[in-house]
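Amino acid chain
________________
===
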Amino acid sequence: MKTQNYTTTDKMITRVTSWVAAGLLLILIIMGIGILRDRFRYEKTNDAQVQEYINPVVTRVSGYVKEVRFEENQVVNKGDTLIKIDPSQFQLQELESAEATANARAELEVLESNIVTATRLAAVSESQIAAVRARLTKQEKDYSRYSKLFTAESATAQQVETTKEGLDIARSDYESALGNYRAALSRIDDYRAQKSGLTAEIRRRNAVQQRTNLDLTYTAIIAPYKGKMGRRTIQNGEFVQANQTLANIVNQDADKWVIANFKETQIGKMKIGQPVLIETDAFPDEVFHGEILSLSPGTGSSFSLLPPDNATGNFVKIVQRIPVKVKFTDQKNRTGLLRAGMNATVKVIRP
């Protein structure tokens, strides 16, 4: 039998290979233990993103952009002016509205003066009625007396005719006085009706003026809160329409959260308040802490624009995902570097 002779180099290579294989085996064992530990200790998903409140900056009026006072990614404070729209047309509308309101108020003053004058004329007419009624009563008595004297042949027919003419004139004057008084009262009612309509018109014009003033304030678009601006897409001189989105602002005062899409087979034992570990691709060495805030009432596909209809005959069973909202429990200075849309890995600690 032939004897194999091993050199020192062969023995060294064999020894190193054995140690490397043992090390790799040890690493695989440790990794396997870690994977099994995570599997039994956590419910995990990497289908998760960081979310923030991103609100559009919308103009409420149409006009030409006069000035843009922010840059992309700029931090702004609450109340800072972001965009100025040319206010010229709104200033003219405000002036026109103010003049129309002043004119209506002047007309109201004239009507009130007319009411006072008509009231005085009605009082004069009423006093004239009393005097005319007194003359009418006297003429009636004279006519009655002369009629009786004429019957007793103590008065002439001419005297009776004269008193009869006086009575007719007195009655005519009385009817005329009553007519004048009624006309004065009717004129007062007309003035009061006009006053009521003009008062309503003044209220309408005041409302128009307030709306014009409000539109004028809308020409200055201000930041609703402290935040960070997104992409800038407008320039000076550009015409914008009412309700047009001009920019986006990220609310830096509000809390951030994570939307984690777990498989439907994973959420059986999840509940609100359950502790969560969060890792992000941007900061792989950082572990953030959170807790479950809420679970979606339906799968993500159920809220899509065109939800799938399994009754069409093309049914293929696919594991659905349930969105779970997770809030951070760390201090804001730790989560301040996170940005909306960042990918994350969420681990829910099993009870």
Q: What stands out?
A: Residues 125 and 181 are 5 Å apart (CA to CA).
